[in-house]
Records
---
Amino acid sequence: MSENKNIPAAVEAVLFAVGGAVSYADLKDALQIEDKELKDVLQEMQTRYDAEDRGIRMIELDGKYQLCTKNDYYDELVRLVNAPKKHVLTDVLLETLSIVAYKQPVTRQEIEKIRGVSCSHAVNRLVEYNLVQEVGRLDAPGHPILFGTTDDFLRSFGISSMDDLPVITPDRLEDFRRQAEEEAGVINVET
């Protein structure tokens, strides 16, 4: 990058023009600058966008960067483009999405084994909402589709990578099991 260019402005131009998330490596290649300089610029830009009274922000999604609208201005955007409100995730969709998030890559059959019921509708709806996507095929008879989460999943739940998901400890898992049994009306008699 020539020395007379404003690096933050160049980053902003690239992210704006692409529209979607751009990997760190692609940004570095496009700008032709050193790692430390790019890391410093990205951190400074994120801090500035968060601190200033602006309608956009820069987010990091699993090592990729993107400019997006601040959530505070969602209603104004909806009125402008007459788009529907955000999708409502039912308990069934949240349960299915949780399984995909924690077990990915995962097949429909594996999800159904965990849930104990058919999940075709839930998986199709999550794909439609762009929270889940096909990430490959299992090397097994029939080559079933493997599903994983998307950048929209990260963005929707306000996390920058899958490492930010809460860890489910054995104690919490036992609490979840107990709650599920209570909701299902199963009585667990301890001896």
---
Amino acid sequence: MTCFATNTLTGQLADLELRHRRRARAEDRIRHAKDTGLAKLPLHAFAANRIWIEVVSLALEVIAWAQMLALGGHQARRWEPKRLRVRLFWAGARVVRTGRRCWVRFDASWPWSGVLVAGIVRLRGLSGVP
């Protein structure tokens, strides 16, 4: 059961709930940005830190799109950047060249390699690349 206490004079319950969810989502994005590298600016110059902030925001966009497109049918879509980093981004892999193609072979003993491979297959299906 949820209770809303507000001084808003107009609006229905659905409007209030939508506003609350948007606020919570914005706070989640801020927390994710801090986890990704925005908590501490590593450089001394203002211009260099501006570049750092742009890189962090680009990384957050790539993570958000990858979760939406590649991990849509899995619980990994809701994972935070720290969990993604530990489970998917640090997966052991090897680049294998056969003929004229390069393949990435993930370690079969890694517990999350199936999720990673399924996400890559899903992305390849969306792009139309065989």
---
Amino acid sequence: MAKKTVASLQTSSKRLTKAIKMIKSPKSGAYTFVESVMSPEMVNDWIAKK
């Protein structure tokens, strides 16, 4: 399960997006969140990989 954030961050001339991915731990079964700031073109690739 992953969700893409709606808000995008604007810095100087580059447009960046903050993506948040929810990952289930194989050991405990608990969910953790991994955040990353990247260009909007890279978001789908980042969410798709495990």
---
Amino acid sequence: MEKAVFLDRDGVISQENSYVKNVDDLLIYPFAEECVRFLHKMGFLAIVITNQSGIARGYFTENELQLMNKRLVDEVGIDRVYYCPHYSRGIVRKYSIKCTCRKPATGMIEKACSDYKIDIGKSFLIGDRESDIRTGKNAKLKTILVRTGYGTQEEIKDVQPDYICEDLRDAVRVCAGKKEGR
């Protein structure tokens, strides 16, 4: 069985920038590649799970998102990107549905676990929003809230992360067992 770190994209790997509409607007944190390389050294898969309702809203296409995903794989070393293009009130009919993959649902994690035979008990989720932490809790993962992206402004009320860190660098230290939580 594999172990994995599930990463939200915006606010964790890249800067939070509302709706990133094309590959040029994807501003990857300068430390992201080094963090992913360290996760790999520790034996973790680095898997991005990301809600991308901008597709359903008509802000950008799935093809444009695929270019962004390819950049994460090529430049950062992400093993795989799972995304949810759905939004029940979207304007693009194909994606305007209620689904089981949109966080805080666990569909993207379940798909990754099936594809890679992941051991949930040895895995983490790193996110910057309450919905990320709720997703991790729903999937029985250890959860880490980073204070980048929305993590600087969104108050977590109904669910508590296992760890709170300043950014992805600190979160990776938690995964390595080299930093205490909260």
